[in-house]
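S2.1 Query sequence (cyclic-guanylate-specific phosphodiesterase)
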Amino acid sequence: VPLYQPVVNGREGTLRGVEVLARWKQPHGGFISPAAFIPLAEKSGLIVPLTQSLMNQVARQMNAIASKLPEGFHIGINFSASHIISPTFVDECLNFRDSFTRRDLNLVLEVTEREPLNVDESLVQRLNILHENGFVIALDDFGTGYSGLSYLHDLHIDYIKIDHSFVGRVNADPESTRILDCVLVLARKLSISIVAEGVETKEQLDYLNQNNITFQQGYYFYKPVTYIDLVKIILSKPKVKVVVE
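Output structure tokens follow.
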């Protein structure tokens, strides 16, 4: 089932979108961690039907509250390498887009680095087709997986999502902070926007705001929530942890 982790404007505290996270709901309540089943799904080939099911559920749920979503609301879904190279991937994404009643939403394809992605002409072409059809392309968990820098060179990437392992060591580990500083410089030189994941403390929030990282997500703002709880958040028109400078 899908859970949703809100993405906020870190300076204003306003809701800007969500990342869709897969969870395996147990019969007697509670959820199984994705770390326990996503790798198995990838190895067994079940990751594609699992993601397809998520896409269908997300479109149905978002359409039910379409009139309440802010303009330009981001909806991000993770796609594994094995799904991206599947022959039906482009058509699935276009059908996903067409299933939304709102046309001003930003649908974000988050390319994960859990598996190596063979960047060839076919891959570049299919991502370009999706980009031309209004999709936003993001590189998830940047800096933790395979060939992140080569992806930036070869693919049309709109956003990089800074992994929580870097954000979590801001100010506590000078070396990690310097590495993050370099990533921010690189992204700006390439005109790539940034989303910071795993924001958990005021110190991390301050660092990100000082470096003009607008989009942020993490437990400092919201943990991943069910659809029902997301609806409550949206209807409350939240401004969380507003920073006054």
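The chain has ten helices and ten strands. The first strand starts at residue 2 and ends at 9.
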